[in-house]
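Two records follow; treat each independently.
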Amino acid sequence: MVKSCLIIYDNIDISKFPKLIAFFEKNREKSKILTKSEIDRSLSSADDKEFLMIKVGLILGIAGACRTDELVNLTVGDIEDVGFSLIVKIPNTKTKTPRIFGTDMGNMLELFRKYLSFRSSPQQENVVRSQLARIIPWKKFLSVVASYLKLPDVACYTGHCLRRSSSTLLADAGVDTTLKRHAG
């Protein structure tokens, strides 16, 4: 939704023009979603040397319905490996309510452990840094995934794609009342 205090031109506050806000909302292009098969394909076929950080971000983002700024602020210390699953704490959220979620999505544990080994090894840290340099800003990292998968309209895979994809996957699985709590 357009914020009520948004100023778009020459110091004009558009909150005084509800029809204009409705027009913008109606015509705003929504972020596309990634399907389960697209997520699985990117996780299984993308090369870890080039896409490991993106894979970890994708899985954490989908599992926790994360906003891209939540991923940016996430530290390795916010993720606990409990052997069979990961427990992820999102301390800083838009709603100021910290979230905790667990994930055992596919090969997430293996990918996360591999990512940790890259982070702890000085020679492998360069691999992570090169990935960081290529995909910053994080808001565009989903367009990198879409481009890899050769999906149309790559620019439409925005930061909101994680939350939309996560909610869609849950709804398709038959989850109903917990959907709102899942996304915070």
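The next record belongs to a different protein.
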Amino acid sequence: MAPPAARPPRAAAWVARRRAMRGVAFEIGGMCHLAALVVARGLRPPFIYGAELLAQLRFVVTISWFPLVLTAFALSFGPAGIQASGFLGLFGALDRLGAAYELIVVREFAPLVTAIVVAGVAGTAICADLGAREVQEETDALRVLGVDPVKSLVVPRVIALVTVSLMFDVLALIAGMLGAVVVVLQNHAPLGPFFSTFFNNATPLELEASFLKAAIYGAVISIVCCYKGLKVTGGPEGVGRAVNHAVVICFLAIGAIDYVFTQLLLATNPILSQPR
């Protein structure tokens, strides 16, 4: 009997792409299903995850606050402040630096830095923790005992990351403005005109949008990392692969959310595009 003919290269590539697309769709569907379970079971009494929630809050804040403050200050002082002040200084318009920082810090840097730090520090730790539990069959043991892993493990971690993202957005705003003050003082300019243009361009809507974007980032990061942690296969090596996949997916999601959210915000509120 003759052996089966090999597939042409184009057909093999098409099959590989189809399988990859199917895998992506399966992953997205699984994450959406986990998000629905978190909402349904998190709002259903009894609320037994209080101790775990406090432990996760303390853990995430402890490991993430310093990288967040350092990153927010460095990005505000370095790429943003030095470049913007050098350009505006050519025209003798350093007072307009406040308007630039309103866009840089409030609209973009604060929630973006929060998301990057939460995903890279806290998200990876959560994914590795749940992955290790899955490899050691602790989650299966919880199911045998009648304990829902989603309610007892995933829900407190999602609430903790969303809460910490809102808190860290405030810290990122403070650290970013501190970097702006250092830039102004470094250029021997008065702080009064800087803060005048900053508050003339700042609106409560942009601050609310910054908090909302940070909360969305926290929810997406927590769902992605928890899903990848609970789906670990292949032992300790599988935990490492899951963490890598979770970080890549989180960063791609951060970029997509930032683009869509900002476009919707500007499209529904044209006044935000008018310099004042």
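Discussion point: The chain has eight helices and no strands. How would you locate this feature using only the token line?
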